[in-house]
Amino acid sequence: MPSTPLAGLNPAHSPSATGGGPQVSSFTLPNGLQIVVIPDRRVPVATHMVWYRNGSADDPPLKSGIAHFLEHLMFKGTATHPAGEFSQVVASLGGQENAFTSYDYTAYFQRVAKEHLGTMMRFEADRMNGLAFDEDVVGPERDVVLEERRMRVETDPGAQLAEALSASLFVHHPYGTPIIGWMHEIEGLTRDDALAYYKRFYTPENAILVVAGDVEADEVRALAEETYGRVPARGAPPERRRPREPVLNASRRVTVTDEKVEQPYLQQSFLVPSSRTQAGHESYALELLAEILGGGQTSVLYRSLVLEQEIAVSAGGYYYGSLLDAGQFIIHAAPRPGVTLEALEAAINAAVAAFLERGVSNEELERAKTRFVAEMVYAQDSQAHLARLYGSSLAIGESVEDVKLWTQRIEAVTADEIREVGERFVRKGHAVTGYLEPRSA
Amino acid sequence: MTVRESSAASRAVQRVVSPGGIEAWLVEEHAIPLIAMEVAFLGGAAQDADGKAGTAALMAGLLDEGAGDLTGDQFQERLADRAIELHFNADRDSWHGALKTLTRHADEAFDLFRLALTRPRFDPDAVERVREQILAGLRHEAKDPDSLANRAFFTEACAGHPYAHPVRGTIESLGAVSRDDVTALHRRGFSRGNLYVAVVGAIDAATLGKRLDQLFSDLPAEAGLAPVSPLTLGNLGKHAIVDLDVPQSVVRFGLPGLARQDPDYMAGYIANHILGGGTFTSRLFQEVREKRGLAYSVWTSLHPLRQCPLFMGGTATKNERAGEALDVIKGEIARLVKDGASEEEFAKAKQFLIGSYALHFDTSTKIARQLVHIAIDGLGIDYIDRRNALVGAVSMEDLRRAAQRLFGGGDPLVVVAGRPIGL
User: Fold this and answer.
1) Is the ipTM of this structure higher than 0.90?
2) Statement to judge: residues A221 and A256 lie in one domain
3) Which residues belong to the signal peptide in this entry (chain A) (predicted)?
4) Any chain A CB within 8 A of the CB of B81?
5) What's the CA gap between B349 and A435, in Å, rounded?
6) What is the tens place of the pLDDT at every residue in B160-192?
7) Is A97 among the residues known to form the active site?
8) d(C-alpha A103, C-alpha A57), whole Å
9) For the segment B271-280, what is each residue's pLDDT rounded down to a tens digit?
């Protein structure tokens, strides 16, 4: 509800590692609902999530923000349970709940004591096809979303730069449009828009149920059959119709100059394969490249720009590859006082070039792999994290097997493969470069 | 309604005392081969000298930037080579250190943690680098409405007191901090006497006992903390506006709160939950967001600083409706004092607080952090087991009294960043 549209540029890895972890089971109901169960028996708690394979990139033309607006309206009641009842029940059971919208998916979740799992499933199944709300809740909720956009974007030049970067990187694909939507289009969204979108996408064939916690797969299956199993099948899953992003032979530059900026910042975004569009194992190599080049204080960029040259206060990079249609490779840095963004940009380019010249050392490769393997273990410490990892991966069309094999595939990447994707996508790629600048007198 | 005893209780908390006399609270859990450790030292930013706000934060930021024979670069490499996660930070009342490691790298992890705590180098180049990083953060926030509203809130609420200063200081005050200030604060701030330790994970009590001595026995027995005087939130009724050219006003409001040890604390906690603490069910959520669409977020919380317990809340609404939003909020505060809560509302709030307690204990890091806070607050090692009964025992009369004490004392201090209309 205070739904968090996942910021488009979150420094999140693709399936951030899980490998040999818990005994995950997966099955499908006759109506097409896919189910994943992740055991975590340490505490008698369950995390219940429903993921829909549609996100802001499926917003129809002129209706940007409808996926996210509908996510808000999903809390406004159904034919059988009036507005607020579900939330009241969750609260009275001591549960937590929320929802979020991203480019490729929308998800709803509750965390409760395990004996209340069935109740959550009953309510969540009910709103899979029973949504019903009056016209009079639409206006105030649209105002809430407009305030959300003002809070996240209109008051923050850094967020405005992020929007401009995405809009410039994607000239045709809807990843260039913010998840929350453009202000002027949100203002025009209606009840009919929301319901049309709901009817098209909220179906059992298009959904994934993920349950993590102190539960047995058989128990989840039985509960799911009684609840989600009663939602009628709608036939084939809805089709995602999205334009393909062309490859432009052009680098681009965007600048946000604002009197609220006192610390300049720069970012380069590169269009790269995602885990779904990769040829071979490019996505795994990009993951390692990002870690070696820009992950933390031992990274190539931090060492060169912050420690050795002392021209930046921060420098790093990440790969955003857990996406259906295209990935992004990001490099960013903030200069020390007196250093221009132009000088910083030149230094970044030189550092990247020098790194690709010399290649990846064994030490760097081992350190990066160690980090990902450890993260796999750390991830098992959080059932909510695991539920999110499986849900987001399946929602973009990966398999349970892909998630399990992630670490193994990371470990198989060679130094040469990392250098090769760096050469091809970063050094020879076309950067969209963004400057965040103070408005100087 | 099932009311379960805190399920963290199913993971018994052990008191471990090392051969050298250092105490830690341990939850032993071998399901996953990792160890999470959380330590705290009382002190924090309230120890910053006048004009040198940010010293405590700078000191915390330098602990993993070189220690013992290792330069900052070498220290970071040693952490990264084994994917050991180590973080330090300061808040107004304490310093916190958090360690997470795979069990198989525990030797190296504890050794690096020991070096960072007991033998930080504070090399001049590291001091300048971290200072520049914090300054960059301060510049980044210099015209951010949320940061401005928070800073102005503490300036007004705690005027004349160390709590008035931002934890990371200001561009001026941080510039005035010398390496000697940092070194001196570490020497007098970190000791076995003001230390709290919690550990969760694949380690047994005997092993932990030995680790504790390795980690902490080089620290002095007692800290040399400066006394911090008690304070009651000031400037009640004042409306302070930080002018900023943005379309939305960020609002903070506050009143004197209740100390963590106050017998009415739990009743006050429930009153706060009913008013603005509950995510989707609170009165403010209903009135400000659901009914009127005034804001995306509206919240309140108890913030029991050791010497100045606070009640505070916030929202963000377009400038044109800021006055309206504030009127609704003040109206709801007054209504809670005048009419109290309904039996149903009260029962539901308790059900939520009791039922959701277990959700605070589902990762090792969260458990360790909770335990350290329970220890610092002096609530006792059995608090997790007792806590839900404490919630259950609050009566309607307790709730009324706590609401009166919290909200019945007059107009709140209000701070707004933006160009609010109608205030």
Assistant:
1) yes
2) no
3) none
4) yes
5) 48
6) 999 999 999 999 999 999 999 999 999 999 999
7) no
8) 5
9) 999 999 987 8
